[in-house]
Design goal:
By secondary structure, this protein is an all-alpha fold. The chain is built from 7 helices and no strands.
Length: 188
């Protein structure tokens, strides 16, 4: 029984991370981006040199962003792998599988809902905390006139963050519904 509880907790954590990062990838890939935004995103994903004229401070920050995005990719695939392994291990135990889907969905919704709530209350605070965590060296503040801020204004981050969190909540709901579908199929 302890093994099952541990597996459920591991699944809840890893599936929440995976769904959040999956939503991030969907939002970034399917958002309508301006030309300079596309060029910058391509650069961040390692597709050549940056084709816009940034200052050395902006380039330094973009190099740091590139490193964070690489780490996000590793975390994305690691969370996918671990979630898949846990699901595969318990695939024949429908009751455990249902609990994983249900609690994984609830955890995902709770995490994303909490982030969304705090972002709605004070996006600037959430944005600042994010940057202090991922860019502690402090090279992430620029004047409103800088090319980087002109390319990625605060409205861009508000819009993409909202989309990511809403998609993640929808995916969490789908997991909860999948739990109910499995329950109904195996009760029939």
């Amino acid at each position: 029984m302890k093994k099952e509880k541990t597996a459920i907790i591991i699944f809840c954590v890893t599936i929440s991370i995976f769904l959040l990062l999956f939503s991030y990838k969907i939002a970034l890939n399917f958002s309508a981006l301006e030309e300079n935004q596309e060029k910058t995103i391509d650069f961040l994903y390692g597709a050549g040199e940056l084709e816009i004229n940034c200052t050395s401070a902006e380039m330094s920050h973009l190099e740091d962003v590139k490193g964070v995005m690489k780490g996000i990719d590793y975390l994305f695939y690691a969370s996918l792998l671990i979630s898949t392994l846990v699901l595969t291990y318990f695939q024949r135990r429908k009751e455990i599988l249902r609990k994983m889907l249900k609690y994984g969905g609830i955890t995902t919704i709770s995490l994303s809902g909490t982030i969304l709530f705090f972002s709605l209350i004070s996006f600037n605070f959430a944005f600042t905390m994010f940057h202090k965590i991922f860019f502690p060296q402090g090279n992430w503040t620029f004047s409103k006139e800088s090319l980087l801020i002109q390319t990625f204004p605060l409205d861009f981050f508000i819009g993409i963050s909202s989309l990511i969190l809403i998609l993640t909540i929808i995916l969490g709901i789908i997991f909860i519904l999948a739990n109910k579908v499995i329950k109904n199929v195996y009760q029939s």
